[in-house]
Amino acid sequence: MSHFYERHDEQLEIHEAFEYLLECYSGWELGQRLPEIDYGKVKSDYLRYGIYAHMFPEWNEFYTAGNLKIYEFNELIHSTSRVLDDACEYLGLSSMQVEARVFNQGKSKERHEELLLKLKEFYAPLNTQLFDMIGTRYDWS
Q1: Crossing angle of helices 113-134/14-24, nearest 10°?
Q2: What is the CA radius of gyration of the chain?
Q3: In this predicted model, which residue has the larger pLDDT, 30 or 105?
Q4: For residue range 103-136, what is the model confidence (pLDDT) as tens digits?
Q5: Which residues make Cβ contacts (< 8 Å) with residue 68, sequence separation at least 6?
Q6: Is the backbone of residue 17 left (phi > 0), alpha (psi -120 to 50) or beta?
Q7: Across all residues in the chain, what is the average pLDDT?
Q8: Helical ranges in the chain per DSSP H
């Protein structure tokens, strides 16, 4: 989430921006409309970028069961060739070799442990719902 924060040139400190958003999402549940955000206070709704389960029903409108292949980003980073080979096979394409490079790497190496704990708590039930939808679990703790 800090990557999105850095890219939006936010005026608030990171913990202030996320505290505001966590307050906006208080009581929000999957299936409801996303909460109203005052973009005079923050430049973006950084939390919504990590609510994958919210987007899944829309994906299902375009893809029938078995036609949507999901990869975890860490799989792509640590096993790039294997993931690309699997994706090509799934799509019926010839295998390809790709040079992996890092783009848009975050600048901040500072960790905000208290904020990270709050974000993990916020996302935990949403991720559980996503894992139930896709039939796969990832260690996002």
Answers
A1: 40
A2: 17
A3: 30
A4: 666 665 677 899 999 999 999 999 999 999 888 9
A5: 59, 60
A6: alpha
A7: 85
A8: 2-7, 14-24, 52-62, 73-78, 80-91, 113-134
Neighbours of 90 (CB within 10 A): 10
- Round to whole Å and give the CA distance between 77 and 100: 8
Residue 72 near residue 137, CB atoms below 8 Å: no
pLDDT of residue 57: 76
- Give phi and psi for 10, each to the nearest 5: -65, 140
**What is the token pair recorded at 16?**
């202030």
Which residues, in sequence order, are CB contacts of 105 under 8 Å at separation 6+?
none
Sorting pLDDT into bands at 50, 70 and 90, what band is 63?
Answer: confident
Listed in sequence order, the residues at least 6 apart from 69 whose beta carbon sits closer than 8 Å to its beta carbon are 87, 90
Confidence of residue 51 (pLDDT cuts 50, 70, 90): very high
The Cβ of residue 74 has, within 10 Å, a number of other Cβ atoms equal to 11
Q: Closest Cα partner for 118 from 31, 30, 35, 25?
A: 25
Q: Which of 11, 5, 102 is nearest to 49 (CA)?
A: 5
